[in-house]
């Protein structure tokens, strides 16, 4: 974790794309506000772009809440036992304990913001 804990201003171009564990097929993210980038303790804020067929493995969080905000493209999101098409301007809220995954099932890139709090499951 970064030792600094202060206000910051960064440009999205400053953060490299990376493929986090359990993300597959070109599921890339930029960790814009994260312990390793700005020293955040309570929030993880990422922009993600998934190429067609890219996905994150189905998972659940013990204590974390998440919000997905789809900016471009469309894909399929599994929430519990339900499967939903998600597209531009959809906002998805996930409380702790709900199994979920997202996959790009569209023809172009699927781009979305993911906000998670707290940063890690306890």
TrEMBL record:
Q: Which UniProt keywords apply?
A: Metal-binding
Look up keyword Metal-binding and say if it applies.
yes
Entry superkingdom: Bacteria
What GO molecular function annotation could you give as one example from this UniProt entry?
metal ion binding
Q: Which residues cross the membrane?
A: none
Domain Cupin type-2: from-to ranges: 48-115
Protein name, please?
Answer: Cupin type-2 domain-containing protein
């Amino acid at each position: 974790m970064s030792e600094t804990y202060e206000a910051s201003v960064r440009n999205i171009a400053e953060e490299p794309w990376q493929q986090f564990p359990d993300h597959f097929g070109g599921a890339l993210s930029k960790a814009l506000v994260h312990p390793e980038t700005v020293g955040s303790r309570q929030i993880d804020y990422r922009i993600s772009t998934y190429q067609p067929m890219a996905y994150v493995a189905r998972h659940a969080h013990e204590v974390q809440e998440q919000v997905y905000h789809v900016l471009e493209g469309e894909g399929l999101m599994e929430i519990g036992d339900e499967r939903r098409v998600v597209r531009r301007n959809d906002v998805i809220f996930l409380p702790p304990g709900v199994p979920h995954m997202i996959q790009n099932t569209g023809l172009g890139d699927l781009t979305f913001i993911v906000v998670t709090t707290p940063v890690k499951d306890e």
